[in-house]
Structure of Phenylalanine--tRNA ligase alpha subunit:
Amino acid sequence: MEQLVQQIEAYKQEMAAYEASTAEAVEAFRIKYLGTKGLVKEVMGEMKNVPNEQKKAFGLVLNEFKQFAETRYETLKSLGAQEDHAHGNQIDWSLPGDPVAIGSRHPLSLVRNQIVSIFKRLGFAVAEGPEIEDDWHNFGAMNLPEDHPARDMQDTFYISRNPDWLLRTHTSSVQARVMEKQKPPIRVICPGRVYRNETVSARAHCFFHQVEGLYIDENVSFADLKQTLYFFVQEMFGKDVKVRFRPSYFPFTEPSAEMDISCLICGGDGCNICKHTGWVEILGSGMVHPKVLENFGIDPNKYTGFAFGMGVERITQLKYQVNDLRLYSQNDLRFLKQFTGAI
């Protein structure tokens, strides 16, 4: 026991003489003396070799030794913190500041906000609705009969059946909810994400974004629809863009028309984007079908209206000449950083 006591005294002198001017040196002290394999633990392990009649006296010595080591460690840590604080206050004000990274909105958000801004200037309010919809608001209210192919599971992501709940296939469901709660005049646009069970490729995706519009009032005509869309196209793409309407079919509008603009990527000469026609389809439109108005208690003999819908990805593709729809959702910083200045 006498030999252990002498060894403890030597360790105490060694700890008292230990100096640490850095956090690394303080940590080295802790590991050497107080760590799981440190000297304090090693010495305390000698208790098993001490005779029983001396254990009490030796236990007091060990406790005092451990407290001494811990106190010394706290002292060194406190001194080291003061040293770091004093050093940290020595700021070189001549050094340049740290650069601040400038973020940006996603290109789809940029275009969506611009679309909303254009139609707001025409008096359209913004309406939003749930992405998980029931069959009535997504299909039935929009004059899509039960045997319509859009209801098939190859086109629609169904969450449950009987009753049917699904991921909305268009934001027309938001128009349905607006007509359900509001009577004419109605003038809204409905931006949002929609889902369709399509193969992901450079030209298609299983989810994308739409902005649909609805205007219902007395004496609304197809001429009002055309002038509204002419204004939108010129504000979005410039005064020189050419526009054409093509007859089409949608269950919820009659008559219906597709709207094309001259391809901004090839200037109308023909490319892969416009399928070498010089024209790119950007939206579908038409006069609201009387059956849709009747579904919500709106008198089709008194009120008429028009509706339109466009894909935000397609508008963004033309505006920023993006050749692959998958780039929008891959989170590739090399792609996204190109829009840093377009806040």
